[in-house]
From TrEMBL:
<comment type="function">
    <text>Catalyzes the reduction of fatty acyl-CoA to fatty alcohols.</text>
</comment>
<keyword id="KW-0444">Lipid biosynthesis</keyword>
<dbReference type="InterPro" id="IPR036291">
    <property type="entry name" value="NAD(P)-bd_dom_sf"/>
</dbReference>
<dbReference type="GO" id="GO:0080019">
    <property type="term" value="F:alcohol-forming very long-chain fatty acyl-CoA reductase activity"/>
</dbReference>
<dbReference type="GO" id="GO:0102965">
    <property type="term" value="F:alcohol-forming long-chain fatty acyl-CoA reductase activity"/>
</dbReference>
<keyword id="KW-0521">NADP</keyword>
<dbReference type="Pfam" id="PF07993">
    <property type="entry name" value="NAD_binding_4"/>
</dbReference>
<dbReference type="GO" id="GO:0005777">
    <property type="term" value="C:peroxisome"/>
</dbReference>
<dbReference type="InterPro" id="IPR013120">
    <property type="entry name" value="FAR_NAD-bd"/>
</dbReference>
<feature type="domain" description="Thioester reductase (TE)">
    <location>
        <begin position="21"/>
        <end position="282"/>
    </location>
</feature>
<comment type="similarity">
    <text>Belongs to the fatty acyl-CoA reductase family.</text>
</comment>
<protein>
    <recommendedName>
        <fullName>Fatty acyl-CoA reductase</fullName>
        <ecNumber>1.2.1.84</ecNumber>
    </recommendedName>
</protein>
<keyword id="KW-0560">Oxidoreductase</keyword>
<keyword id="KW-0443">Lipid metabolism</keyword>
<dbReference type="GO" id="GO:0035336">
    <property type="term" value="P:long-chain fatty-acyl-CoA metabolic process"/>
</dbReference>
<dbReference type="InterPro" id="IPR026055">
    <property type="entry name" value="FAR"/>
</dbReference>
Length: 402
């Protein structure tokens, strides 16, 4: 039997780390910021905020009001404004010069996770911005690791079976190298033709980013993390943390009808989702180990349950009459658009993948602030509490739209 990994084996690796964190006001970015600022001996965090610092603080006041003061009072966080789509990332040249001389690691969580966005915009938001950041980070003399968050959606063109932790070639057997140029900053992203073999344009854009980042002889160490859908937190910054719009499963449920629920209730497809704080801990442990290449962060690191398991728990938490009343309401036009994009009507035909997480398996033994799950965590109780919260949100949304 393998022994536990104590905190002192990894926390010391954060001493002296100066991290540039993008997407700091998002669900995952906020969780990473909390942990880097309050739980680890990180030297400094440059938190890149799009818009103004005031807007960022208002978002944190909404998403984690009880934790915001601890983050800012840590003395480790420097809030900087910028925009990855602008020249120089929209960062003040003086700050950019300091970053160049101080930053040791970059964590890029910026993403437009919309599945209804067209390909051209998704490429701009999910590929060109990543390449711009990578190009800048490549000039940092003290950089130790560049971490880019991708998605399991990049593999949506694969047949059923095992999905390995490696870069897969594009599904087009004869790709046009010129088309890939659309992924570079400033290029015309509309030049990339849509490939219907991907489930969504988002997956195609993210896959292009992976291929471009890994294509060249990497000037700096690079890690690509592919999480599954990200759900509410187990415990940190607090239990069930996670902005509603950043939780794909909640968006999906908004477009369900009763017949959809019945089909889900009999499905043996894996409910592929992991809590946001587990994803953050997985990322930070790989940062401590300076892992490179591709890693997955998916249900094998937490619990594997089917859609039928999820619905069975929902029926234990919510009465049949309440479920019926909620999902018999007419869906909005926006919900119907999501329904098409999520391919709800073809749920029975959905492909099943076995997502490999071998490179993170050791993390199940980690203890301390980066343990994947807190001691005594009950996944079933967490699911029940999460479903009850989801129900309240769905009811509120229904009342607000009526």
């Amino acid at each position: 039997m393998q022994s536990a990994v104590p905190p002192d084996e990894y926390t010391q690796n954060f001493k002296g780390q100066v991290v540039l964190l993008t997407g700091a006001t998002g669900s995952l970015g906020g969780c990473l910021l909390y942990k880097l600022a309050t739980q680890l001996p990180t030297k400094k965090v440059f938190a890149l905020c799009r818009g103004s610092v005031g807007e960022a603080i208002r978002k944190w006041e909404s998403s984690m009001p009880q934790q915001m003061d601890d983050i800012l009072d840590s003395g480790k966080v420097e809030l900087i404004t910028g925009d990855l789509s602008r020249p120089g990332l929209g960062i003040d040249p003086v700050i950019r010069y300091r970053m160049r001389n101080e930053v040791t690691s970059v964590i890029n969580t910026v993403a437009n996770i919309s599945l209804v966005e067209d390909l051209a915009k998704s490429v701009r938001d999910n590929c060109q911005t990543a390449m711009a950041l990578f190009q800048m980070a490549s000039e940092f003399p003290h950089i130790q690791l560049f971490i880019h968050f991708s998605s399991l959606a990049v593999n949506s063109f694969l047949p059923a079976g095992v999905v390995e932790e490696r870069l897969y070639p594009a599904p087009n057997p004869n790709p046009d190298p010129v088309e890939d140029l659309a992924g570079y900053p400033g290029a015309d992203s509309s030049k990339l033709p849509a490939d219907e073999r991907y489930a969504w344009p988002y997956g195609q854009a993210k896959h292009l980013a992976e291929r471009l980042l890994l294509r060249q002889p990497c000037p700096i160490p690079l890690l690509i993390i592919r999480p599954s859908a990200i759900g509410p937190a187990i415990a940190e910054p607090f239990a069930l943390y996670g902005p509603e719009k950043a939780i794909p499963m909640h968006t999906l449920l908004l477009c369900f009808s009763m017949s959809d629920l019945d089909r889900v209730g009999s499905s043996d497809h894996i409910f592929e989702e992991v809590p946001v704080d587990l994803v953050a801990n997985c990322c930070l442990l790989h940062l401590a180990n300076k892992t490179t290449g591709v890693v997955h962060c998916a249900s094998p690191l937490y619990v594997r349950q089917t859609a039928a398991d999820f619905m069975a728990t929902a029926k234990q938490c919510i009465s049949a009459s309440d479920i019926a009343a909620l999902f018999r309401k007419p869906r909005s036009s926006t919900a119907l658009m999501w329904q098409t994009k999520y391919k709800v009507e073809n749920m029975e035909e959905a492909i099943s993948w076995d997502v490999e997480c071998k490179r993170s398996e050791y993390q199940k033994l980690v203890t301390g602030p980066l343990a994947l799950c807190p001691v005594g965590h009950n996944p079933q109780l967490h699911l029940e509490q999460r479903i009850q919260r989801m129900y309240r949100v769905l009811v509120d949304n229904g009342e607000n739209s009526s």
